[in-house]
Amino acid sequence: MRRFLTLNAALLFMSALALADTFSGSLLDNTCAQQQKAATCAPNASTTAFAIQTSDGKVLKLDSDGNRKAADALKQSNNGADRAKDPSAADTPVTATVQGTLNGDEIKVDSVQVQ
């Protein structure tokens, strides 16, 4: 019985990963994007809430775990290092790929890669 439950739990976990989608586009500061619909809102070292704007123009916000992962990915990328040195530097677009499951207009994030 224990073996059966362990196998079912593993299958459930793998099936959840199989449902994950990939979203690519511009990583945004979600707070800025909500306040200024038309402005470019590139994230910087102090950004805590992120969103991704896909090629079709949709803006999808990241869940709380995704915000943490995006902040870490941004800090590890060259973009994050440049912005940390000079937070007032001109906004340059940050391209990202997010793996996760879409729930309404929010992505439950599995991983974030910043290019």
Element-by-element helix/strand order: HEHEEHHEE
* Most strands sheet: 5 strands, mixed, barrel
In angstroms, what is the radius of gyration? 16 Å
Strand content: 25-35%
Question: How many strand elements?
Answer: 5
pLDDT < 50 runs, ≥5 residues: none
Total count of domains = 1
Strand order across the biggest sheet? 1-2-3-5-4
Gap from first CA to last CA: 46 Å
What class do helices, strands and sheet pairing give? alpha+beta
Spatial shape? elongated
Average per-residue pLDDT, rounded, comes to 83
If you had to describe this structure to a student in words, what would you say it looks like?
- By secondary structure, the chain is α+β, with helices and mostly antiparallel strands.
- The chain has one domain.
- It contains four helices and five strands.
- Strands 1-2-3-5-4 form a five-stranded mixed barrel.
- The termini are far apart.
List keywords for this structure.
alpha+beta, five-stranded mixed barrel, 4 helices, 32% strand, elongated
Set out the fold topology:
Layout: H1 2-18, E1 21-29, H2 30-35, E2 50-54, E3 59-62, H3 64-76, H4 78-85, E4 94-103, E5 106-114
Parallel strand pairs: 3-5
Antiparallel strand pairs: 1-2, 1-4, 2-3, 4-5
Helix pairs in contact: 3-4
